[in-house]
Write a structure and sequence with these properties.
The chain contains 2 helices and 6 strands; from the N terminus they run βαββββαβ. The protein is an alpha+beta fold and 112 residues long. The chain has a single domain, classed as Alpha-Beta Plaits.
Amino acid sequence: MKLIMAVIKPFKLDDVREGLSNIGVEGMTVSEVKGFGRQKGHAEIYRGAEYTVHFLPKVKLEIAVNDELVESAVEAIRAAAQTGKIGDGKIFVYDVSSVLRIRTGELDTDAL
């Protein structure tokens, strides 16, 4: 089992959700986060004054999948989230040693 963590632009969330649904991914956790990478924020003008926004709004997705789905899930996220511009995000893949469904007590792949 793997945990896929992706940080993407907020307006790409529905496209990514749809892409993952099409390959059989049944659930995900979504968090609104702020951060920056190489783009290091940007300048904005508010009421005539320019100021720098250092942390940009992003969406963090956490998706637990069976090993067989990892490559197709990563590709679905990449294809749906890519705009070709700086700040598209990152995808991280972690090993998961165990999963427990609290309601039923199911373990590992049965709990996904």
